[in-house]
Design goal:
mainly alpha, 0% strand, DNA-binding, homodimer
Chain lengths: 186, 186
DNA sequence: TCGTTATTGAAACAGTCGTACCATATACTC
DNA sequence: GAGTATATGGTACGACTGTTTCAATAACGA
């Protein structure tokens, strides 16, 4: 008895908050501007999430969930040469539409380096992708549980993403990926 | 006439402030704790640097200067195979002693993604290294002004650094670099 | 000693931050 | 209607932020 709880509100707020963080970044996040943009109040944010830290944790989990879904949706092209698959992944992840996600990705990593205690899973977001990518590049792996190849592939992708986001030089980074694809194939 | 200026004080403070930022990170930097650790006052920091933003800019310039010097000191091994040179660079940059510098590196990059206006040079710190590294890997380059090879090499190094700092898995990242060295040599 | 310039301390200002407190409103069962 | 649990608004607290203001001190040349 009493007024029924409305769990949908928290979910709706979480979705909007994730949009906001993807758009504005994590570093300067503040409850009052966030609440204003979401047409709610700091009071309600704390009511639903308990504290800012828990809100941020929920937002990051949601962002990672979204990223995983989008990646899974896109990955399918298992046919084709190694180059084609690599270029396909690069084209997708480096597209402008993914920029907010990539930005948050780097921001979280940097924050984790300064405050490791906040992220008890020690880079789970990194190794997460290995299962998916390991399957995609199985034919250039040395074995079914080869972790080195996906590590290298992801390093190239992240390293070039780093370069691209810092310099904006798409031509040079695209060509560097092509070069890597060549090397992998021989 | 009048009391003579003491430019050495600013330099001394800058050096100490750089140490402090390398140790504590850039994100949560605050004048009062910084001043306390440096045995000075916020008043003097602003007196010497004008504003916090200018102080940070000076610290970042100093940090980059230090990094460039250390890199130049280390690079010499131009002899030896491509693998040896690559592994030498990786061993040096991924060593624990470089961790504070690497951390600041990632932190600045992330901050630059959120506040591009603060960094008008659009990733000059990135392309900086190309001249040096381009010379080091000239024999695997396609030409004297080949930018693709150094781009790829640095991408692998940064990408693996990202992985290593996030997961702490040195064995896997070391082996991934070896694999890349193999690929590069064939 | 006096004038001048550099340096420094203490305090305050105006703002933002996360959060807690208190009241009130809303929606339901009985 | 009463009773009850959820959902809000408003407000204020205490701690922080970068920066400014005002006054005092220190080191020099004359």
């Amino acid at each position: 008895m009493g007024r029924p709880a409305d769990p949908a509100r928290r979910e709706r707020t979480l979705a909007q908050a994730t949009d906001y963080v993807l758009a504005h970044g994590l570093a300067g996040l503040s409850l009052r501007p966030l609440a204003a943009a979401l047409d709610t109040s700091p009071r309600m944010l704390l009511y639903d999430f308990g504290s800012k830290q828990e809100l941020v944790a929920a937002v990051l989990a949601e962002a990672r969930r979204r990223g995983a879904v989008r990646l899974a949706e896109h990955l399918p092209p298992k046919t084709g040469s190694v180059q084609e698959r690599l270029q396909s992944i690069w084209a997708w992840i480096s597209a402008d539409e993914r920029a907010p996600f990539v930005r948050l990705f780097f921001e979280v990593h940097a924050d984790g380096l300064v405050h490791p205690e906040t992220y008890p899973d020690r880079g789970e977001a990194i190794t997460d992708w290995f299962d998916t990518l390991g399957a995609t590049f199985r034919d250039v792996s040395t074995g079914p549980d080869d972790t080195v190849t996906p590590t290298l592939v992801m390093a190239v992708v992240r390293g070039l993403l780093f370069d691209l986001t810092a310099t904006g030089d798409r031509h040079r980074t695209d060509r560097a990926l092509d070069r890597f694809a060549e090397l992998l194939n021989r």
